Amino acid sequence: MNTLKKTVFTAALASAVIATTVVADGHADKAAADAVKARHAQMQMVGYHIGVLGSVAKGDSPYDSAVVDAAAKNLAALAAMEHATLWIEGTEQGTVEGSRAKPEIWSDAAGFKAKFGDLETAALAMVGAADQAAVGAGIGAIGGTCKACHEVYRGPRN
Ligand code: HEC
Q1: Ligand 1 touching residue 149 (CB < 6 A)
Q2: Exposure class string for 126-141: b at 16+ Cβ within 10 A, else e
Q3: What's the gap in Å between 77 CA and the centre of ligand 1?
Q4: How far is the CA of 128 from the centre of ligand 1 (A)?
Q5: What is the full per-residue pLDDT of the chain (158 aa) written as tens digits?
Q6: Does 112 sit in the ligand 1 pocket, CB within 6 Å?
């Protein structure tokens, strides 16, 4: 290979390496952004279901045991979702657009998981609530678990 050919070849190789790196980063960025979107969807589902219970507690919706049980069970199921696909390390606030996840989610993974466990327990305690008053009595405990986790593991508004 003469010098010119060598230079062209080296340049081509270098740009191929750069292109591959960019594509790889692009995939990583997309995966991170998708995970943040998905866990926001999880939280919106959580918010929706406590809203259903809140509406019964306030008397805005009529008490219906099937609806109350379904909302409580869905809340518990959402709280029990596995973390590996949603709470991906490296997606804390400041690294991915829209994320408000604090680094403590990963540095204290057991504590974070325990807070989800508290939500699951409070939601399961709501299953079988026999009337509007019982829904009202249990909803404070569920709401308390939202606040307890957000205070420690959710960052300020972006
Ligand atoms: C174990 C911790 C934990 C519990 C329990 C929890 N959350 Fe969250 N929630 C978070 C974190 C962390 C975020 C920020 C996630 C992010 O931006 O990546 C969040 C974000 C949210 C959001 C914003 C979603 C969006 O679209 O940006 C809503 C709404 C929400 N939570 C509602 C609730 C409600 C209501 C409850 C209780 C019924 C609750 N959460 C319980 C940790 C929790």
Answers
A1: yes
A2: bbebeebebbbebbee
A3: 15
A4: 25
A5: 566 566 555 555 555 555 555 555 678 899 999 999 999 999 999 999 999 999 999 999 999 999 999 999 999 999 999 999 999 999 999 999 999 999 999 999 999 999 999 999 999 999 999 999 999 999 999 999 999 999 999 999 99
A6: yes
